[in-house]
Design a protein that fits this description.
The protein is an alpha/beta fold. Helix content is 52%, strand content 19%. The strands form 3 sheets. The chain has a 3-stranded mixed sheet with strand order 4-1-7.
């Protein structure tokens, strides 16, 4: 392998914690010559705008251009994505409380939304009537909300629904049943990919992509 061959791998998106970024912050670099890898990784790309959050799309061609200007003898091979979305977030200690507050709000919103969805589903499929019919089938008597037997059936249904959701989503416990991603994680990754593609297309149409000159 040629010692002057440098391999540059870009991910579709990357999160950075500093506004001033260099190549090693957003790309994986490999070269058999360790000095080349180190110097290329320290090449400055730009300073991201904004103090709290910002995002920018940078193409692999832009990185190749920056590298070639300082190291014209290097042969560059690119791998992975042809462009990457660089997200900047201020992760300093003074923003930790804000992040925790947002997370708590989202958890509460998700809990209320899930509870409403389950209640709407139960009302739509007439779960109370179904439980009443089951009670009549097994006891040969009319159901009543004050009847301990009917209440026990409702309680068992509620507990079973909770356990079933945990098992199906394979989420919410410290130890998962399998190493496979949960359905929720799969949907989140698909959503993330679609958002990234949308950002890349929008930046390209608006000529905001950081590309080679």
């Amino acid at each position: 392998m040629n010692n002057n061959t440098l391999y540059l791998c870009l991910q579709q998106s990357v999160l950075v914690g500093t506004r001033k970024i260099n190549i090693s912050d957003i790309a994986t670099i490999f070269c058999s010559d360790k000095d080349i890898s180190y110097t290329v990784g320290k090449i400055d790309i730009m300073t991201l705008p904004g103090n709290e959050e910002s995002q920018v799309v940078i193409t692999a061609l832009k990185l190749i251009q920056l590298i070639s200007r300082q190291h014209p003898h290097i042969h560059i091979e690119t791998l992975g994505s042809s462009e990457t979305i660089v997200y900047y977030k201020n992760l300093k200690a003074n923003t930790v409380m804000k992040i925790k507050t947002k997370a708590l709000f989202l958890m509460l919103l998700t809990l209320l939304g899930t509870a409403y969805s389950i209640m709407a589903y139960n009302q739509d499929v007439a779960s109370n009537e179904l439980l009443g019919n089951l009670y009549t089938l097994f006891t040969n008597s009319s159901p009543s909300k004050t009847n301990p037997g009917y209440f026990l059936g409702v309680l068992a249904y509620s507990i079973g629904l909770c356990i079933g959701m945990i098992i199906f989503f394979n989420h919410g416990v410290s130890r998962k049943n399998t190493d496979d991603p949960t359905p929720l994680q799969v949907q989140m990754r698909l959503y993330e990919q679609e958002v990234n593609q949308c950002i890349i297309i929008d930046n390209s149409r608006e000529n905001k992509t950081i590309d080679a000159d």
